[in-house]
Amino acid sequence: MKRITVTAAAAVLAFTAVTFGAGGAQAATLFSDNFEDGDSSGWTTSGGTWAVAADGSRVLRQSGTSSDARARAGQASWTDYTVSAKVKPTAFSGGNRFAAVLARAQSATSYYYVALRSNNTVELKKLVNGTATTLASTSLAVSAGTTYTVSLQVAGSTLRSTVNGGAALSATDTAFTSGDVGVATFYTAADFDDVSVETATAPPATPPPTTPPPTTDPPVPTDGPIGFASLNALGQNGVTGGAGGRTVTATNATEFLDYIDSTETLTIRVAGQINITSKQGVRPNKTIVGVGTSGHINGGGLDFYRSYNVIVRNLRFTNAEDDAVNVGQESHHIWIDHNSFSGAVDGSIDIVRGADYVTVSWNHFDHADKSMLISHSDGAASTDVGHLKVTIHHNFFDNSRQRHPRIRFGEPVHVFNNYFLNNELYGVASVQQAGAVVENNYFENVPFPCFSASGYADSGPGRLVHRGNTFVDSGTCEAAGSVVEPRTYYSYTLDSAASVPAAVRAGAGYGKVS
To answer: What is the spatial distance between Cα 109 and Cα 130, in angstroms, rounded to a whole number?
Structure first.
């Protein structure tokens, strides 16, 4: 290992030489570590599982994939420098995960970083008190087992990054003026090596920005969906919603309807109660996100007709005169996350007519009658067979009567880590040749947790595989046949069924994410 930390005075002298010296002057090395001495002294870690390991040469390895993790080194007084490292992701747990290099780190929740994402993008970002903002991004093939040389330069208000000498990104930002360096992962195992920090020259004052300063209000999803909405399919590489577009705020129905009908890529902040009627169409490339606990859609719902790449998050839906959310007509890559539903005349969420690649996560269905329908009719085989791939996880079906979900034709529909409480008619019904995998859920006071082999009502039988579920004062799941495994499409991590009630009560519904 080689590690050099320049004293503050020496760093100033070195920086002066670089800035004002002869043309042959070289940047001073503030820090370097190749981990060849077998230890990670000088690094402070948080989260994950860190150790020095052998991979040809020695590397700093983060082997966990169940959380975010960081390792930091250096001095808080460092200002203008370039940090570079070799980064080798070794395993991604789910979609849109990343490994990153950090600069000007203030704490575990505030720093600049450049991230290699599993959805084949590289992003230049900042994290401020846990809220992430994308400053610039570009496409880049990112795969586990490949080593990338990642560089991030911070000089004055200018940020520049490269990967393997290309995929260059730049932005201007003034959130942080100094700080130490680090590496990080998000639900990703990775090896890091040859970390170095060299002084950089600040550009002239007020340079012309290459990227306009982005808005950071409101915080939008930074974690990304688990499951089908995260996948690269049908020309869409995972759901990104309004990322890269303008952020606007809707405080009344006129503004809201104008924004969701726009062809522009938008993040739409919903502030206050929006009273609408019927089902209103949402065009592609939107993030619709409630502000705090104020975002409220009342009286009507959202309709997706051949739409795609939309995030619906942190909203309260009440008293819809039809469906609260209808995903239909070949719409795809829709993520419905951290919302609350009550009082809909028909369904809270319908996913029908050839829709595909949908994730429904962390929602609260509060005394709903019909929670979720997948395929609208026993006669819809021609539009629905081969489609309706849906992931349903960490939802709270709270005293809701039925359809959690009711599935026709779709396969696989993946139902995991949900809390079913006091569901009068049934939990999950897989009918009309549908295929469902139901695992690690918690059923409490549910007389009929699952229907499949016997069909349901007038619908014929479906297929259902169940495992790892907990049944309290409930029946058991009716299993039938075999189903395509969700892991054929994506990786995921299961919580224990016993932990589900507490986690879902605490985390599901609106007002639980920033």
So the answer is: 5
Q: Which of 335, 318, 316, 337 is nearest to 327 (CA)?
A: 335
Are 132 and 96 spatial neighbours (Cβ–Cβ below 8 Å)?
no
* Yes or no: domain 228-507 corresponds to CATH 2.160.20.10: yes
**Catalytic annotation, residues:** 403
Distances (CA, A) of 455 to 319, 367, 388, 435, 477: 30, 24, 19, 12, 13
Quick one: average pLDDT of 393-419?
97
∠ Cα 349 505 64 (to 5°):
95
For residue 265, the model assigns a pLDDT of 98
- Quote the CA–CA distance of 513 and 339 in Å, as a whole number: 10
Q: What percent of the chain has pLDDT over 90?
A: 76
Q: How far apart are CA 223 and CA 133, in angstroms?
A: 12
* 490 exposure class (CB count in 10 Å sphere: 0-12, 13-18, 19+): buried
Q: Which two tokens stand for residue 481?
A: 């046949």
Report whether 407 contacts 427 (CB < 8 A).
Answer: no
**Domain boundaries of the chain, sorted by first residue:** 8-199, 228-507
Paired with 360 in beta bridges are 336, 392
For residue range 66-89, what is the model confidence (pLDDT) as tens digits?
989 999 999 999 999 999 999 999
Name residue, tokens 């100033």. 12
Q: Give pLDDT tens digits for 93-129.
A: 877 799 999 999 999 999 999 999 887 878 899 999 8
Taking residues 335-360, what's their average pLDDT?
97
Coil, helix or strand for 173? coil
- Distance CA(479)–CA(126), nearest Å, equals 47
Burial environment of residue 138 by CB neighbours within 10 A (0 to 12, 13 to 18, 19 or more): middle
Q: What is the chain's Cα-based Rg?
A: 25
Listed residue (470, 464, 454) closest to 421, CA to CA: 470
Secondary structure (3-state) at 11: helix
Q: How confident is the model at residue 9 (pLDDT cuts 50, 70, 90)?
A: very low
CATH 2.60.120.560 fits 8-199, yes or no: yes
Proportion of the chain in helix, strand, coil states, percent, rounded to 5: 10, 45, 45
3 confidence band (pLDDT: 50, 70, 90)? low
Cα–Cα nearest to 341, from 310, 375, 367, 302:
367
pTM of the model: 0.60
DSSP 28: P
- What confidence tier does 207 reach under pLDDT thresholds 50, 70, 90? very low
First to last CA, the chain: 42
Judge whether residue 160 has pLDDT over 90: no
